[in-house]
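Listing S7. Sequence submitted for prediction.
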Amino acid sequence: MSNLKIGIIGFGTVGTGVYKTLANHDGIEILKIAVKNINKPRSIKLPEGLLTDNPFEIINNPDIDIVVELIGGVEPAWEYISTAIKNGKHIVTANKELLAKKGEELFNLAEKYNRVCLYEAAIAGGIPIIMPIKTILAGNNITKIQAILNGTTNYILTKMDMDGASYEDVLIEAQKLGYAETDPTGDVEGFDAAYKITTLATIAFKKRIKLENVYREGITKVRQKDMEQANEFGYKIKLIANASIDEYGNADVRVHPMLVSKNTTLAHIDYVTNAVELTGHPIGSIVLSGPGAGEFPTASSVVGDILAIKAEFGKTDYMLPMMRCHHETTATPIKIEDTYNKYYISITAPNAIGVIAKIGTICASKNISLASVLQRGVSENNTADIIVITEMCQERLIKEVVNELDNCTVNSLIRVAE
């Protein structure tokens, strides 16, 4: 059997890792690698003529069997991938944004042309999650996902917690170490995790999740003081990608900071590590954790997808049926204001008799019970820091409570994981 021929579009950190890893696999030949700048100095020596600055030398090459897209973003990636599919190429991609925004269109196109599109690397780097859900876990009714899907934000929150540093200081450190981009918005405002949970929930729930229905909130408002106070109550603060679906197909999918109990696995997923907890029947709950980014972890998933295609290439007219899209319906979204959560509220209030009683009265008027209340001394300006943790209640009601706390400053309002 002749070699499976590959074209790679994008040769950054992940592309380099893919190239190095494929060197150890027989039967695979990389014909071309498309880059922006052919003359850019590179860490590895490449054969003469392997690089091109024209991706269509790959996309339109009839000898290439698989196009590996590693540039990210929607355009021009969508043009490259869609054209490649029409030209008879199978696709392997790590593009979480494209999947979240154009996944339905992508998979419909792939099905129309009977091509396979695999994307294990797009969700959690080196952690195998998509293929396990579609194969060994296929018999489960998965109803809940809680995950840490962004290494940058997890690194920042871990350093704030362990070193007592401010968000601003840790962000600068993360940028120097290469964990955060010069413009970190995609990570710290939760966009990256939102893209990933959109696709992950779609696969796990077997219903399409629309990105525009995913609630998103980043970590920029989390204070180091919140870290300290969360610890006192037995919690860690993490950016959690959370998704659940009920028996009627109503889905609650969101990304935001959460207080996570120290008794759980996710509370101890630190620095750039990622983790995904799946809950369903009959499996119960399982957690998969590991490196969520990086040269070789992500390359591991990309190469795994390439080898999955190679294993069936030329042997069947309909490859990898379990890995294809079979979604026929879209989940009904649950708005964030209709969700039920526990809440951590940090309040600065005048040091006056009856302030805590007033907070309790306002909560009681909304039928909200309080699990814990703590006052942390009195400041020089005669104000007191009060921390409240509620029992389960509706989001719209807790917002009403916040609006009615006259003469008080609400410093933080963070949801608490069940």
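Caption to Listing S7: primary sequence and predicted structure tokens for the chain studied. The mean pLDDT is 95. The two ends are 53 Å apart (CA to CA).
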